[in-house]
Amino acid sequence: MEENLLEVRNISVTFKSRYGVLKALDNLSLNVKKGEILGLVGESGAGKSMTGAAILGLIDPPGRLSSGEIYFKGKSISNAPEAVRGHEISMIFQDPLMSLNPLRKIGDQLVETILTHMNISKSEAIKRAKNGLKEVGIDPSRLNSYPHTFSGGMRQRVVIALALAPEPSLIIADEPTTALDVSVQAQILDLLKKLCKDRGTSIILVTHDMGVIAETTDRVGVLYAGRLAEIGDTRDVLTDPKHPYTRGLVDSTPRIDSNSFKKSLFQIPGSMPKLDAMPSGCAFHPRCEFATEICRKKIPQILLDRSACWLLNDGEL
Amino acid sequence: MLVIIFRRLGQSILVLFLVALISFLIFRYVGNPVDNLMGQEATLAQRAALEEALGLNDPFYKQYFSFVWNALNFDFGNSYRGALPVSDLIASRLPATIELALTSAIFALFFGVITGIYTAIRRGGYLANIILSTSLIGVSLPTFLIGVLLIWLFAVELKWLPSFGRGDVIQLGWWSTGFLTLSGIKSLILPSITLGLYQLTLIMRLTRSEMLEVMRQDYVRFAKALGLSPKQVNYKHALPNTLVPVVTIAGLQLGSIVAFAIVTETVFQWPGVGLLFINAVYFVDIPVMSAYLLLVGVLFVIINLFVDLLYLAIDPRLRDSNSSE
Amino acid sequence: MRRFLESDFLYDFLRAPVAIISFCVVSILVLSAIFAQFIAPTNPFDPASLELMNGFTPPMEPNMYTGEVFLLGTDDQGRDLFSAILYGLRISLFVGLMAVSLAMTMGVILGLIAGYVGGWLDNLIMRLADIQMTFPSILIAMLIFGVARGLLPPELRYEMAITVLIISIGLSEWVPFARTVRGSTMVEKEKEYIAAAQLIGLKKWQIMIRHILPNVLGPVLVIATITFALAIIAEATLSFLGVGAPRTEPSLGTLIRVGQDFLFSGEWWILLFPALTLLALALAVNLLGDWLRDTLNPRLK
After folding, report:
1. What ipTM does this complex have?
2. What is the value of pTM for the model shown?
3. DSSP state of B236
4. Quick check: B317 and A146 CB within 8 A?
C-alpha cells in the first residue's frame, strides 16, 4: 500500500473558556496521499480551518493541540511544525487582500520567501520569482507592484505563486475561492489543480461549497462539530453518502436538473451545535431522523474506513 | 497624489486663518486695551486719541488684516505687565521650552517604542506584565502630580537633582542652551521625565496594541505559514506596519507636549513660554495670551499637516486616490 | 436586577481584582466626600474656626502652642489637613461631575442633531469638532478659562471661579460624545421604527429625544466614565496652576499647589497627603474606566 504523505492521528484541539474545556477538534484522523486532492467540507465552525491550522502549528491561542500526533513523510511534526512550513507544507488563506503585506511590493515578498528556503543568489531568486508569476498567469514585469493595485483574482494568483515558491509537497488551501467572484473561482481552482498535478503536489482543499468539492477533489472528508463524520472517494461520498449529515448536505445542494425544479429546496432541520452545548453521544443525533438509543449514548468512531455512524454497523443506511 | 497634497495644504491654510481670527478676537475684544494701557484717570480726549492711534475705530476686516500682518512680522503688541514687546518676551523664553519639549519627546518615543515592541512580542511574560502594570500609573496620573512627587523624592529626600530652574545656560547668539553645562543637563532630567512620561506610556501602549493587531493579520500568519523565521516575521513584516499608525499618533502627540509643557514649567519654575502663558492667564495679560495662542495654533496646524504628509509617504495605498478594490 | 446578577458583566467584574479594588477605592472616596460634613472634625472653610497658632503642626503630634492633635497635620493657616482633604475631594468630584454632565449634554445634543438632521449642520458641527480635536483639551480649557476671566469684571472673577472652571472643562470635552452619538444616530435613523415614527407625524426633535436617544446611550456611558476621569485630572491641573479653584474653596489640586511651597521648609505633610489622595482617586477612576471600556468593547470579545 502506498505510503501516506501526511498522517493525522487522533488529534484534538481544545481551549479553555468560561464554560469549561471546549473541543474545536475531537479525535480527528485522516490521511493524504502523494499527488491527491483531499477536500474538507463542513459548515462554518465545523473545524475545517482548524484542521489546517493544526497541521502547521498555527492555532491561535488560547487553543492548543492537546492530543494526537501528526506525521509527515513518516516523521512526527506535531512538536516542531516550524520545520516543515514553506518547503514541505504550505498554506493559502481565504482573503487574498489580507494575505499580502500592503506595504511591500509583491516581488519583494516572493524573493524573500524563495531566499528563506533556497540557498541561491538574489538574481537567481528574482528569476525564479518572475517564473513563478508567469506560471500563475501574471505579467512578470509586475514584480514591482503593490498588492492593492491588483484585482481580487489576480491577488489570489500571487498568493498561489508565493505558496508554490518554496516547492512544497503539500498545500493546504483554506477556502481559497470563497472571497472571489464566481467567474473567477473556476479559473483559480483550475489553476491550482493544474499546477499541483504538474508537480505532483498534494492539496487539502477546505471549503463549504459542495460544488467545489465535486469538481475538484479526489477524496473528501465531512466535518461536523469538530468531528469527522464521513471520509472517502468523492464520487462515492457524493452519490452514496453513508452518513445522515452528508446525505442532508448533498440533498440541500441546489442542482440544475429537471427533477429538482419541482421540489422545494431541502434543509436539514435545526443547526449545528455550539461547542459549549454539545449533545451526548453522536453530535448529529438531535437532527437525525434515524437516531437510535446508542446514538444518544456513545460517540461514534469512523467505521469501515468510511463513516462515523452507528447505523453503519448494521451495514445499511 | 499632488491633488491630495494641495487639498491638505488648502485645509491647513483655512484653519490657520481661523486660528488667527480667534486670536485676534481675544486680542481686540476681551478686556479693554485702552483701560489697560491708560488706567482710570485718563480723560476722554486722551482715550479717543489712543483709540485712533491703536486703530480701534477702523473697520473690522482692516483691524483683522493689520493684526495678521503684524503677526507675520512678529509684532504682537506690548504686554500689559511692564509694556515689553510680546515678541521679545516670547523669543527669550522659547529656547527653554523647545529644549525641554525636544528632550521629552525623544525620551518618550525611544523608550515607548522599545517597551511597546517588547511587551507585544513577549506577551504574557513576567517582565512584560510588570511593565504594563506600571504603565497604567503613567497614564492615569496628572502630569503635575508626577512632577511634584518626583521633586519630593529626588530633590527633597534624596537631594540628587535640582528642583527648579534651568541651571546655568550658555548664550549662543539669540539662543540660550542648557545642554552644554552640567547643571543645565541635571536640571533637564526631572522635567523631561515628567513631561515625557505620559507620552511614553501612550506610545508604549499604542505600539503594543498595534503590533498585537498586526501580528494577528493574515499576512503575518501567511508569512509564518511560508516558513519565514520569527525574526523576519516580526521585524520585516509586522514592525513596519505597526510603526505607521504609531508615528502618526506620536507626531500628533508632539502638540500635547507643548500643552503639557505649561504644567511642567509651572511645577519646576522652568522659564519657558508655558510659564509665561499661565502667568498671562492669571494676570489677564491679553496680548501675551493671544500671541501664545496664535503661535501654538500655528504649531499644531503645521504638525498635523506634516504628519498627514508623512503618512502619505509611508503608506503606498494612500497615494492613488483611486486604487482598485 | 436578576439579569444584572447573571450577566457577563458582573461575572467579568468579580473576576477582575483590578476592577474590584478600584471600585472600592472610588466608592470610599466618593462617600467620604459626600459625608464630609459628618466625618471631618472641623470645617476648614470657616475662617472663624481657624486658629493661626495651629499652623504647621505635623501629623499626629500635639501642637506646641495649643496642644491640639491633628490626624494629618495642619497647613500654614492652621487648617486641619484631614478636613481640608475631605472638602477638597468634594470640590474635585463636584467639578468633575458637573463638567462631565455639561460635556455629555452638549455632546449628545449636537451629536443627535448632526446625525439626524445631517446636511450643512452636520458638516459644520463635525468641522468644529475636528478643529477642536487638533488641540489638547487642557489647552482649550485654559483658553476658555482665560477668556472668561478676561470678560468678567475683576470683582466677579473670584466668586465665579468654580463655575468658569466647570464650563471650561465641560466645553473642552464634548467631542467624543458628539461623534459617538452621531454615528449611532446615523445607523438608527435608517431603521424601520424611525420611519414609522416619521409617518405618524412626530416632529424631528420628538423623534430624536424619544426614539433615537434611548438607543444610542450605551456607549455614551462608557465615554462618560472616561471623561469623568479626564475631568478630575483637568480640574486638578488647572487648580494646581492657580487658575482653578481658589484657596478659599480649595480642591485637591489647590492644596497640592500650596503644599509644594512648603516642601523645602520641611513641612512635607502639607503636600504629601493631598497628593496621595489625588493619586488614589485618579488611579482608581482611570483603572475602572479602562476596565469598563475593555469589557464593554464588542470587538475584543
Report:
1. 0.75
2. 0.69
3. I
4. yes
